[in-house]
Amino acid sequence: MTDAPTIDPRDPEEGARLFDPDEPWVSLREALEADDPQRLAAIFEELSLSDGLRALLQLEAEERTSVLAALPPELAAELITEAPNEQAVDLVEHMEAGDAADIIEELDSDIQADVVGELDKDDADAILAEMEPEEAAEVLRLAEYDDDTAGGLMIGETFSFPNTDTVGAVIRRLTSEDEDFERYRGQHPYIIDEEGRLIGVVSLRNLLTAKRSTALPDIMVVPMSVTTDTPLEDIQDLLDEHEFLGLPVIDSEGKLVGTVSRSAISDALLERSESESLRRQGVFGDELRSMPLILRSRRRLAWLSANIILNVIAASVISVYEETIAAVIAIAIFLPMVSDMSGCSGNQSVAVSLRELALGLTKPVDVFRVWAKEVSVGVINGVVLGILIGIVAWIWKGNAFLGLVIGLALAINTVIAVSIGGVVPLLLKRFNQDPAVASGPLLTTITDVAGFFLVLSLATLMMPLLV
Amino acid sequence: MTDAPTIDPRDPEEGARLFDPDEPWVSLREALEADDPQRLAAIFEELSLSDGLRALLQLEAEERTSVLAALPPELAAELITEAPNEQAVDLVEHMEAGDAADIIEELDSDIQADVVGELDKDDADAILAEMEPEEAAEVLRLAEYDDDTAGGLMIGETFSFPNTDTVGAVIRRLTSEDEDFERYRGQHPYIIDEEGRLIGVVSLRNLLTAKRSTALPDIMVVPMSVTTDTPLEDIQDLLDEHEFLGLPVIDSEGKLVGTVSRSAISDALLERSESESLRRQGVFGDELRSMPLILRSRRRLAWLSANIILNVIAASVISVYEETIAAVIAIAIFLPMVSDMSGCSGNQSVAVSLRELALGLTKPVDVFRVWAKEVSVGVINGVVLGILIGIVAWIWKGNAFLGLVIGLALAINTVIAVSIGGVVPLLLKRFNQDPAVASGPLLTTITDVAGFFLVLSLATLMMPLLV
């Protein structure tokens, strides 16, 4: 919270002159056509980052490239940082290597690594060749780590001092004008030995009270740290338990290689949660509407085509009972209702399981406990819904036995759907499948097959009473 | 990152002696029955916070209350903090007011306000009566603000100094042993005038370089701040644009009333995203399996019962065409397929819109732009899926015209589903409805009605060719 600007960047009067807030891209396009980079920059300065990104993404792909190239690299870097990762990569890879390199140099080192790590090798090499060799090497080093580990989430910058330094050295660096202290994101000073191994941390309190001549090892304490391969969940657990703003990251030899901040962890968790929410509906690659039409279509189709096969399996149950339907046409009305209603009941259980898995409150070993808990809900809801739909069917078609068939089928199928729905995500997780992707289609197929079978076999049994 | 502990709290060997990591609640129950609070505390000390909460929630409701009352209040407060808000309230409201007050006094002030704000008035009053009057008044003050505003997200503690103080006063407080500096979560020192109005902030750099006798107004800068009613999204925008660890919060008179931290904002966004993900499947109140069975059942049923009505509307379309089904029984097989497939296609568009709304990349004014973009995807996917399902129907039932009817119906209905699916969340948002709750059921009803109508009316038209 240092050196804060004093102007509200979202002054509505100021904004009204430069662009229409509903369609700011119209003004962007005009400035681009007028070859007026200053006006372009002025428009983005007035917009909030998310509004700026919204405006940028409403432009055509070539226009976006031209706008980014015309902006000051720091401003372009802020827009790239605001964009979801896949969109950021798409923006960068369409630029000239030189322009892209200027922008990438302005990104925080964790974002640099995310973007460069996702680029085609040729694109990445071309951009890295345009960068300072030292910085390019640093980007390559960070890009090697897995996304959801401390290595993938850390920034390479560490606020560190050799164990031969004194308090005075720390204060000199903190107060020097040569260094942008903000990029350390509130780290405390870390102390390293001659091999670069992390051996201590100095608290702000000790820094303020010690004499300038005090050797750092005399006031340091042993810090808590994580290794480059520590997974996101474990870092989250540590930060839940301790009020740290971040943690130092060490490699397998104990060398200090970076720091991972609390905000990077929160952001990664939020991204994961939103990405999972998309995958549950069969949308992959964090789709945004600004991505190419063919890519969006193809990704959605891949999942839908697989769904056709599951639908054919379910429908084949109906096919077996065509004679029953021919005898009691009204059954055809209730088949989709029973399958839809049980699907919804089951998906409620899936949602609760996915959330409890994410919170760590349920683990794959809890399969039977979850099943038992969901059966109770399934029985209550099955009875209530079965009675409701049974009465609807009875009144609608004037046949109490039809009501009985439909109601009983929905009641039983609700118990099946709710109990299996709670368990499916745990089983998928145990077998290392993504529960967000597979739970829904798997559950729906099971409840469709069971629902169609229950309605049609009960109807067949009670046929004399139904016609 | 101060005074870090040096011991890894999750030593597996140590843990193995105290409890079974798969079922730690068995040991909790034993310790509870043996009336051994020290062993209880020891077990929780060994568990990570999420594992500790998981264990606690596996116990019966009365056991949970006894365990929390037996633990040291700081430890119980950590577990309450880890729990989602509704579960936290449930845990607290079952305790004796005195025990609850001890724990609530240990919570951060933003969590205190969240929990107390959700309690029944009687429970809240009983607990507040057991607290220090000053602290109780503070909790009540914070509980009044809306959850998703700066007031609801802030902590009441501010690291503030009168404008008559010097640098020396700040350093004395920073280094005094009487105050827990961690609770300020890395705030910089704020300067207030005699009326309590926020007038400045001092950077760490200035603090370290200025003489102790320097008056604070001489080195302060004007801080960026938010007001108590600034919404979550706006705070997020500000933090996206500036590398602050948090922001001071002022009331309508400019008085400094609290600070909102970056981590509180990230946590609120994550909670909102996960809560929305549950509501999309018709699960309300952030259900956990540890909540009472009847409550879980009732909440899920409320949504499912409304769903029955929508299903009856859709099914009534089938009812109109019973004669067509009687003539071509095979139609009954494909009705659920067409409605399910188009529902899935539409829900993909819904998911993308919900995410773009959350990211601020789409706004309600974009209805026609979104519609146009989705129609393109819908046409491509409709043609592909229509051809696929048409071939399936043709081969399966040996009638090319049946394939044509089913394929054409699915193709048209996919365009409808995809384009409407993209637009529905925007329209709901414009009319201040929760798009996460209503989009799915609304879309499914539209695509069911349209799908049934398309299949059955096309089949009726082409009847001579189908039988």
Give a verbal description of the structure.
The structure is a homodimer of 467-residue chains. By secondary structure, the first copy, chain A, is mainly alpha-helical. Chain A folds into 3 domains: 12-147, MgtE N-terminal domain-like (MgtE N-terminal fold, Alpha Horseshoe); 160-273, CBS-domain; 293-466, Tetracycline Repressor, domain 2 (Orthogonal Bundle), CATH 1.10.357. In chain A, 67% of the residues lie in helices and 5% in strands. Chain A is built from 24 helices and 6 strands. The first copy, chain A, has helices at 12-18, 24-33, 37-46, 49-58, 61-70, 73-82, 85-93, 97-106, 109-118, 121-130, 133-143, 150-153, 167-175, 204-209, 216-219, 232-241, 262-280, 293-320, 322-327, 331-359, 367-397, 400-430, 435-461, 463-466; strands at 160-162, 190-192, 198-201, 226-227, 246-250, 256-261. Chain A has a 3-stranded mixed β-sheet, with no helix packed on it. In chain A, strands 4-5-6 form a 3-stranded mixed β-sheet. The longest helix of chain A has 31 residues, at 367-397. Chains A and B meet through helix 4, helix 13, helix 14, helix 16 and helix 17 of A and helix 4, helix 13, helix 14, helix 16 and strand 5 of B. Chains A, B: It comes from Bauldia litoralis. Chains A, B: Keywords: CBS domain, Cell membrane, Magnesium, Membrane, Metal-binding, Transmembrane, Transmembrane helix, Transport. Chains A, B: One of its GO terms (molecular function) is metal ion binding. Chains A, B: This is Magnesium transporter MgtE.
